[in-house]
Each structure stands twice: as C-alpha cells, then as structure tokens.
Design brief:
seven-stranded mixed beta sheet; Aspartate Aminotransferase, domain 1; 16 strands; Aspartate Aminotransferase, domain 2; 2 domains
Amino acid sequence: MQQTNSIQLFEKAKTYFPGGVNSPVRAFRSVGGTPLFIDKGKGSHIWDADGNEYIDYCASWGPLILGHANDTVLNAVEKTMRNGTSFGAPTRLENELADLILSNNPHIDKIRFVSSGTEAVMSAIRLARGFTGRSKILKFEGCYHGHSDSLLVKAGSGLVTFGNTSSAGVPESFVNETIVVPLNSTEAVEQAFQQFHNQIACVIIEPIPANNGLLLQDKSYLEFLRTICTKHQTLLFFDEVISGFRVGFTGAAGYYGIQPDIVTYGKIIGGGFPVGAYGARKDIMARISPEGDVYQAGTLSGNPVAMSAGIAQLSECLKPGFYESLAKKTQQLISGLNALNIPGMKIFSVGSIFWLAFTEREKIQSAEDIDPNSMAHFRKLYHPLLENGVYLGPSGYEVGFMGEAHTEADITKTIQAFKTAAAV
C-alpha cells in the first residue's frame, strides 16, 4: 500500500501541531505506523492522499449515518450557504430542526443547540447543578463525556472515589466535585448516595457506553439508576452523543424505554457538521439563560449550515424501515465475521454500532472487564485490513458504525478482508 503522501504530510503536520494531529487518536499510536491523511469520501468509501480506497466503518466517529457527501445533505447545505453561513442571530432553520427532533422524541420538551458534544455535556452539567443547587456529579469509569475539566477524571482505588485527573491541567478542586464509580455496580452507586447524601446534582452515563469498547448495560441496571435518582431527587443524565439517533430516532432512551432528566446529542443531528445539543423537560430547561439564571451562549450555536444538514439527514432517518435496515446489515456483517472463526474474536453490537473484542468473556460491561493485552490482537489485524481496503477507527477501544450507504458488496469485501488479514 502506497503511503508516500501521507508520510510526507504527517512529517509536515508535526511542525504545525502537537503530535502532528488536532485530536489525539488520529496519531495512530494505538495501532502504530503513520496516520492516513484522507482526501475525500463518498458514500461508504474514503480515499487517502495516496489514492488508496477504503470501506469506511468509522464514519467520522459515527455521525455520518447516511455516508460521506450524501447528495441530499449536500444539496441542502449548498442552498443554505448561498444565503450566508453564519449570522449570530436566530434563523428559521433552528426552529425547523428543533421541531423535527422534539415532535418525534417524547423524552425531551425543549432543546438548546451548541457546537459540539463536549460543549453540550459541559453546558448540561452546569444546568444540572443550577437546577438542583448541588455541586457534585457522579460518573462511571469507562464512560467518556468529552474533554471538559470536571469529566476528565478516572477512578482511584476503592469502590467509590473522587478519583484522579486523566489530564494535566485539571485542578484538584474540579476532581473533588466528580465522584467516579465502576459501571454495572449497584453497590457502588448506592454507597455513593449514602456517602454524599443530598450533594449529587446528576448521575451521568452513556446509556450505551461506546467510547471505551461497547460496554452494553442490562436494562435493569439503567432502570436501577432511574429509580435511585428519583428517590434522591438527583437528575439522571443520558449522554447520547454516540447512541442518539444511532440505535433509533429516540436513542437509547427510546430503545430501553427509560426516561432521563437530561439528554445530550452530538454531530449526528447536524449531518456531521460541528454541532451538539442538550435537552430536558420544560421546567429544567427554563433555568437556561435568557429565561433563567444558568448562563450558556455560543456564536455558532444553531448556525444555518449545520441546521440545514441536520434537517436533511434526520428527515432521512425518519423514513420507514431506516433503522431496521441498518440493524439487518450490521448483523449480516457480524454473522459473516463470526463464520470466519478468528481465534479469540467476539463482536458485540447494538443497532448499527459494533465492537471487535478479543476476549473469552460472554459479556463485557465495565472497563475492568477489558484486558489491555487484548489490544495487541487488534493492532495485528489493523494494518492488514487497511491493505485490503477496510478502514476502522485506529484503536481497539473504538467502535465501528454501519451506515445507509454500505452495500452488500461492501460487506462481502469486508468479510474477505478480515479473512485475509487474520491469515497474516
């Protein structure tokens, strides 16, 4: 596989950016080698700077559910851009996208658009604190909620802990407002509420944890969280930046039939453009400025380009059979890969999300269940897969995504690529 241009571009990039990238996982350190510089994408395929073509299961980390450069989305964006790209003022497109989401989602009454998933979660945490008058939040080891200070915290020793920062530059005072417990442990959550009675503003969880493997939780565990949060007048916060509009239009909340108090969404609501959102019931959202006393603002919040792309993409997602078709294709891929009997490889999935794990376990439901040594098996497969035209996110902890643009031919070629890669 020719990589001359990607290698040259990466060497140049290292003179401009820390590590040569603008987001850490892109540096390929988890899999080794030189990161690919992507020149273009169309449908389910991408092409790198050396002209190599790949079937893409990263999909810009999930939001491109229709595929790259979807014509419906592009036509909507082009029409909007000819009238201007940003005004810092309200537009009718904000109303249209909000109505599209809210009229088809019974779990939130009002919504606020922002510019990223991280910003959505950061803003919603502030809202939870403002609404409850409490300062502490409870999060789970193995769930990722963006790179804001209070959420870059990992568990320390012990069942319930204030933990340790996972990044330099995060003050200890931030860490001390974040309680970290293991996933899938009722005991840890109960102990946290006992220890910090009337201090916890919200319990934040990815209801479908998909940033550190695919750590599928039992519905009963999410129901337990709903019950204990209600009991302690703590807000249950579903971070659906990945799962929202991926497992169904109403996300994990609809998939499991559980009502959260606050929900966040990511770039999928903007057709892959930089956008995010948080939503809740009316009385909670009434605390947001200018209606209430919790401040949050953004020049590009609700910008017309992202709004038009979101309207186009989500309208396609609402078509009958859309999610059923995605799930069927995902299972077709998984069945074909399972038939290869690659030693030690198991595939976990939900909807159009899948994860390749190398484990003897039948379930992986917490960060502690993942053997770090198993990542060596993913690294061994990764570059042979690239050589055979299949692109996955460059880390064994990352999930893959099926999209509407993937074809049966793509699936057949992917299965053959895995077969060839496993024999290397």
